[in-house]
Recover the amino acids of this structure.
């Protein structure tokens, strides 16, 4: 099972006909190997002395005060990395490049959805970030304060994040597709003093209001002192004098001179909320030195990034961790030139991404499997109509990529030669953990393959027994890593309980993913083992959607499951019981319930299907049997129903579902 095919050389393709018609793995081309940043020796160096290896990676950064110790794990599971070191994250991402003579290099090729565009060099970025830092200071913000950022993909969003980093303010970016109530709960949880937003956002050629949602969210929110508004769409915007400020009148008027102060390596850089197994999102805390070290290190090696040569594009939104680590911090720490695109991939038409690749000569393209599957659905003639020969490396993140999509991605977008890095990581891990290294790894469709040098992962069973090739169990991280989360904002008990209690004796981090090793020892991530769904790469908890549904006056109880979906990975399917006396108005009620979920959480959490049922299947201990509901949702025969209180419940559910 070790047949490989050499990139670009069809004659070298070896076919394993017993398993499938496709090669099992793909070797990098010799040309790629020759120029690759990574070599096998990277693994050896990390194995020899893990902490010395990380110290070396940390020295990619500029430290105002050098660190004295690499790791302090004495207060586990809260780590301290690069102890005693002081740095400024924004200085590392911006100033340093200007000081080292890269001021005129483009940092961001920004592409607006309606067709406008803007290039920001590192000097431009320094001026903008300095202005924003001065304006934030004038608003009375001091290191340690929290700032909420609720913005579409405009340059000012990145500038705001960097200005926070520069001042030691902790940012909490909230995806602009989230509802005002989701924004409100995040503002309250972090006690944010400032919200940065835009008047509106462009979506498929239309300007949709955004500031209005902020108004709703901050109404009565006591921590909020100001709302800072970037003019993007020029639509009419409601205004509260004294509280609301225009960006161009404040940041625009501020001085472009600002000297960055150093902060402790463990100074909190940001909070990012992610879904957990309960209805309340968790505020994941990341700090400075370790986080920046690992994002810069992984961006350099995993993407084989060459400063001054590559044009890098990560298609994520800054509302997710991928945007934080692989649009803002990793690439900018490495002095990258990157594309940032504001809109959807089919605006004005399905050629948009490929037009952008051609326009800027994108060399590295990092996206999500759900988008690859969407491109497949649209048809290969669309990318085929473009010259994509600049692309030399492809990346995937967010969910397992099915081998069919992987091959299509490599053949159609990667010209049949580009290595694909399938990167496994999480909001909590902060940076990539398991991934092929391009130029070293023989890549294998569907497998994330190997923990990166410096990272240690295991697959273990319920009893903490480590499994070898062929083993199928839970993914754990058995050694601390620099960009690991440092806790859950305001709830350290939940931090310990969620990640560290499952294998408390061993002291391992429980990732919540199932995984297996194949016979070659390559790692395959199988998906969540908890009640977290993965819809288009977005984590949404079943209980979050359930609580949005039961907040509707007509709903007594709700059960939500993730059913497999060809395009989005999983789709949300809900079963609801109505309150006594509430009339089932059919489509009208369903539409109302879907709207309720959009409003409470976000349109991305809207169920694909909602079925009104007379009862929900429960175990004798009162737990909803989601496994059985999933069977119904995916149209399978029901398995074992013997643990149910009333197996007859299912006839009624299946009937309702079939309607
Ligand atoms: C970066 C990010 C994390 C969850 C994670 C897992 C899934 C991410 C994956 C993958 C298989 C990959 N996941 N990358 N599964 N292969 N390459 O997505 O963070 O939003 O926190 O999601 O996503 O289930 O546990 P986050």
């Amino acid at each position: 099972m070790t047949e490989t095919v050499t990139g670009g050389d069809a004659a070298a393709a070896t076919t394993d006909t017993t398993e499938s018609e496709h090669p099992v793995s793909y070797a990098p081309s010799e040309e790629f190997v020759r120029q690759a940043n990574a070599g096998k020796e990277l693994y050896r160096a990390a194995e020899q002395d893990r902490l010395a290896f990380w110290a070396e990676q940390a020295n990619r950064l500029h430290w105002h005060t050098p660190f004295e110790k690499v790791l302090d794990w004495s207060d586990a599971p809260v780590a301290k990395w690069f102890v005693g070191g002081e740095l400024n994250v924004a200085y590392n991402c911006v100033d340093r490049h200007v000081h080292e003579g890269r001021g005129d290099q483009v940092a961001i090729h920004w592409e607006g959805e309606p067709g406008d565009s803007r290039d920001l060099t590192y000097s431009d970025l320094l001026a903008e970030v300095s202005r924003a830092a001065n304006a934030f200071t004038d608003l009375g913000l001091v290191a340690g304060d929290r700032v909420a950022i609720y913005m579409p993909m405009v340059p000012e969003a990145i500038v705001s994040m960097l200005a926070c980093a520069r001042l030691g303010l902790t940012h909490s970016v909230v995806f602009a597709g989230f509802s005002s109530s989701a924004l409100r709960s995040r503002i309250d949880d972090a006690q944010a003093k400032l919200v940065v937003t835009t008047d509106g956002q462009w979506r498929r050629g239309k300007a949709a209001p955004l500031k209005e949602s902020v108004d709703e969210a901050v109404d009565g929110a006591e921590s909020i002192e100001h709302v800072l508004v970037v003019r993007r769409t020029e639509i009419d915007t409601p205004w509260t004098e004294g509280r609301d400020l225009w960006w161009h009148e404040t940041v625009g008027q501020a001085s472009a001179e600002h000297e960055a102060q150093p902060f402790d390596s463990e100074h909190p850089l940001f909070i990012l909320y992610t879904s957990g197994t309960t209805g309340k999102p968790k505020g994941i805390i990341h700090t400075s030195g370790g986080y920046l070290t690992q994002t810069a290190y992984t961006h350099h090696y995993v993407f084989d990034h060459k400063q001054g040569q590559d044009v890098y594009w990560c298609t994520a939104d800054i509302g997710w961790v991928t945007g934080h680590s692989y649009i803002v911090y990793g690439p900018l720490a490495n002095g990258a030139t990157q594309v940032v695109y504001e809109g959807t991939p089919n605006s004005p038409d399905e050629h948009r991404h490929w037009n952008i690749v051609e326009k800027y000569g994108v060399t590295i393209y990092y996206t999500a499997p759900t988008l690859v599957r969407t491109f497949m659905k649209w048809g290969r003639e669309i990318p085929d109509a473009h010259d994509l020969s600049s692309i030399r490396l492809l990346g995937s993140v967010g969910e397992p990529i099915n081998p069919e999509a992987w091959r299509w991605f490599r053949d159609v977008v990667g010209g049949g030669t580009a290595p694909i890095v399938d990167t496994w990581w999480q909001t909590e891990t902060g940076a990539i953990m398991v991934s092929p290294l391009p130029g070293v790894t023989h890549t294998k469709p569907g497998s994330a393959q190997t923990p990166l040098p410096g990272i240690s992962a295991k697959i273990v069973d319920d009893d903490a027994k480590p499994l070898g090739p062929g083993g199928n169990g839970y993914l754990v991280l058995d050694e601390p890593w620099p960009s690991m989360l440092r806790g859950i904002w305001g709830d350290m008990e939940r931090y310990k309980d969620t990640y560290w209690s499952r294998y408390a004796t061993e002291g391992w981090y429980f990732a919540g993913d199932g995984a297996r090793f194949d016979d070659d020892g390559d790692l395959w991530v199988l998906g969540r083992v908890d009640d977290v769904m993965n819809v288009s790469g977005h984590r949404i908890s079943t209980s979050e959607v359930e609580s949005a549904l039961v907040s509707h006056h007509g709903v007594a109880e709700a059960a939500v499951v993730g059913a497999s979906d060809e395009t989005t990975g999983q789709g949300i399917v809900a079963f609801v019981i109505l309150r006594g006396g509430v009339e089932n108005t059919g489509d009208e009620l369903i539409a109302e319930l879907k709207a309720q979920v959009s409003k409470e959480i976000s349109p991305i959490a809207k169920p694909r299907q909602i079925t009104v049922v007379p009862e929900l299947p429960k175990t004798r201990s009162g737990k909803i049997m989601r496994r059985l509901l999933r069977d119904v949702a995916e149209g399978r025969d029901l398995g074992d129903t013997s643990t149910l209180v009333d197996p007859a419940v299912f006839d009624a559910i299946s009937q309702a579902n079939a309607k």
Notes: The radius of gyration is 25 Å. The chain is about 30% helix and 25% strand. Residues 274, 320-322, 397-400, 422-427, 448, 511-513, 525, 527-528, 534, 537, 539 surround 6R9 (CB under 6 Å).
